[in-house]
Amino acid sequence: MTLLLPLLAALQSQPGQEGGFWFPVQASNHAPFYDWVFFFILIVSAVFLLAITVSAIWFLFKYHRSRAPEPEPSTSHSTTIEIVWSVIPAFLLAYMFWLGFVGFMDHRTPPADAYEIYATGRKWSWSFTYPNGAESEELHVPLDRPVKIIMGSQDVIHSLFIPAFRVKQDVVPGRYTDLWFTATMEGEFELYCAEYCGKDHSSMQSTVFVQPEGQFNAWAEEAADFISKLPPAEAGARVFKMKGCIACHSTDGSVITGPSFKGQFGTERKLADGSTVVMDENYIRKSILEPNSQVVAGFDPVMTNFQGQVTDDQIRVLIEYIKSVKE
Amino acid sequence: MYDQSQGVNYLNCSRGFWSWFGTLDHKRLGLMYMWSVMGAMLIGGVFAMVMRLELFAPGQQFVDAEAFNQLFTLHGAIMVFLVIIPGVPAALGNFALPLMLGAKDVAFPKLNRLSYHLWVVGALFFVGVLLTTGLDTGWTFYAPYSTLHSQTAVVWATFGAFFLGFSSIFTGINFIATIHKMRPPGMTWFKLPLFCWGLYATAIMQILATPVLGITLLLVGVERMLGVGIFNPALGGDPVLFQHLFWFYSHPAVYIMVLPPLGIISELIATYSRKHIFGYRFIAMSSVAIALVGFIVWGHHMFVSGQSALTSIVFSAITFFVAIPSAIKVFNWVATLYKGSIVMKAPMIYALSVIWLFGIGGMTGLWLTTLQQDIHLHDTYFVVAHFHYVLVSGAVFSMFAAAYYWLPKWSGVMPNKLLGELHFWSSLISVNLLFFPMHFVGLAGMPRRYADYALQFADYNFWISIGGFWFGLSQLLFLAVCVLCAMKKGEKAPARSWEGAEGLEWEVPSPAPFHTYDTPPVVK
Ligand code: HEC
Ligand SMILES: [Cu+2]
Ligand SMILES: [Cu+2]
Predict the structure, then answer these.
(1) What is the ipTM of this complex?
(2) CATH class of the A227-324 domain in this structure
(3) Subunit contact B316:A166, Cβ cutoff 8 A
(4) List of chain A residues whose C-beta atoms are within 8 Å of the C-beta of residue B136
(5) What are the domain boundaries of chain A?
(6) What average pLDDT does the segment A198-224 reach?
(7) Which of A215, A315, B214, B488 has the smallest C-beta neighbourhood within 10 Å, fewest atoms?
(8) Which domains does chain B have, with CATH numbers?
(9) Can you tell me the distance from the alpha carbon of A161 to that of A170, in angstroms, rounded to the nearest whole number?
(10) Residue A10's pLDDT band (cuts 50, 70, 90)
């Protein structure tokens, strides 16, 4: 043990923001213990693997046919040996289980006063909602303060993974899951979707911004009321991205899952039931809140229902944005 | 006893398509399984190599994300359902089990033929998938992506897997009956070759776990086609339920894939050390123990799925129990070498490398079942490295070892020594270049099933791809060895093809005669 601890400490040393050979930087409260347990198991495994390798190679050399033309008489079973080499690893395994259990319980038990952020996963982007109503596609968190992320999915299973924080949790439709951490390092860190979720799974990435509390609060305030500060069309562009409309609708004429909005405002379209309708303010509003009430001919009725998920202000700027996308 | 003068054996006793496709002979069925599985492996392997081509460098070069998703899905589904699960029990087991027991055939030859035909039907469904819209759900078919969102031929694929499941169940039933009822006089349970113990343990799992997979995949089809809410929360279902049902089969499936290969390793190490295996009873019982405990560990795939913390804790604790019987096997193999007289023939060098490679695969499992460690590692390349060490350098290398060992009995000629050794070294180096760096990209945080990756993962991925191409091309050497044997090019094999080989299969001429053992031999 006295030999082991300095070795563990040496393996763990972290050269700055870059991360070490083994792991990304330790940027959350969970990381130091996590890495310690990793290296503990590494050393135990390496000792066993070395013992197996060395004895196998030694036997291969010593008892090779050229040196040992005939097998020597030897026992072919020994209950004592079998018990010894089952029980010794058993103790080590029990200790590993214990370490994992302790670490896991810490991961699963958010402090009661944690700052709460809601996360939504959808094909193929993230959206984060803060207590003051601000929303963003990137995750912004205050430094040195416990943060609890409560997660839900709009479609399939995703998984929120921040390597530098050593946290991951599946995001499951139909229920909430959560994870928590305290960011301990200022900076930008990668955030991935770790559960396969279809076509653009590998680009369902985002960034975590860790800022000192003052800067974070200033950001959150600005983010909460950009609608009143920006020109409506510009604010609408932001909502369009934030709410994930961009995954299905383009503004350059190309058809993704849904129709493009390029130069569409004020034009007439055919609906699946055969009627025609002009795209005006009311039509857009209805398309967002009750998408399946008027389905455009040639498209599947697969648009997400945004009833209760967008505010009137947001709908207003979305309409302005769609108007602004000209031919 | 055997009329060898005419040179009649199981290969040339009759001719024509139906004499093979309609045969009831376990040796012919085994051989057909072997070639079919190798064909499937070639396709699955090519898919993997195209994936590695795309991942050679960051950015999109050769295939887009959609095609990439199809590649990893079909690679996984083919390798699991069409290659490794039937590869060891059905292909090797069919050929070897009755011979090792001195039995005329398996207990139910017609059922055995049906198993093979079901394999073919299952494979045809997969061909159907390939020819239509493909499949992009991952081999795990996670709902609700598979039941609602995927635009691909999910239903075809689930039907294919359903038929393959029945093929596997029937083989299991057959082998259990064979081992119980057709052991020759004098072969008590504890004289049973260890490969047969591996097959026995596997057969239990095939029978008990596979039906659950079949039902689960049918439910996927039902939800997809009829819109009945089972897994999709929008219809009142539960997506996590799917994962429980899926892993209830797919964790035991891992042991279906590895227990018989580990049995082969036990046989080979004893044979080429000219010794009795050390700790026979412990090895035999460890297979059964792994099979039984293997049924109650599936939740270790779901530590971050949203299952309750208590459930995860229980599954983690039980999973640690699997480590002990696995370690017992490894220790006993090394002990068998002690005071032996070791010859390094191709089957033996493969067997020895498996001790080490399977050791690595087993040890990385320790991290994954340590609850807190799995949080960071789950669904990263670390997991990909772990199960490829177990399944490729563990199970597939054991299949190579077994193939070199029994090729003389199948074909009547010894496998080419030079090509065999070249194949070994080339595969050993490349398999490590391919899978070892995956541990590091995983630790660095690269998720699996990514068609593209961030720049910091580029160096590792470059070397992984080099290893991948190299490993893939190395397998042409194995194909060459098999083709040479099939063409009877090489040294003629005597009945007992390897010095020190003691199983009953070495009592009959090589290649095996059409009728082996009309009367069972007596085991002393
Ligand atoms: C899952 C994909 C998807 C998302 C996300 C989505 N839509 Fe749609 N949308 C569609 C499809 C498909 C149609 C065509 C079928 C229909 O009318 O329901 C459509 C139709 C529309 C229409 C009518 C278009 C026309 O040309 O008549 C509007 C307006 C619209 N969506 C706005 C939005 C807005 C605003 C958002 C974001 C808040 C959004 N959609 C998000 C898929 C989507
Ligand atoms: Cu994803
Ligand atoms: Cu498992």
Answers:
(1) 0.91
(2) mainly alpha
(3) no
(4) 198-199
(5) 4-67+75-108, 115-224, 227-324
(6) 92
(7) B488
(8) 20-507 (1.20.210.10)
(9) 9
(10) low
